Amino acid sequence: MLTEIAPSRAKAARSSIGMRLALCFNGMTIVAVVAGAAVPAAVLAQPAKLGAYTGTINVSGTEVSPQVVFRATVKVSLPVTERDSRSVSSDFLSGEAPNASVLLSQWDVSFKEKSAESDGKFSSWTCALAAPVEIAMKPTGILNVDLDKKKHELSLTLLSTQDVAFNCVHSRSGAYKKKQGVALYVGTGAPGMQGLAPQSFADAGRLSAKYTLMPTAETRGQYGPIVQEWDLRWVR
Question: Among 4, 30, 82, 84, which is most buried by a count of CB atoms within 10 Å?
Answer without folding.
Answer: 30
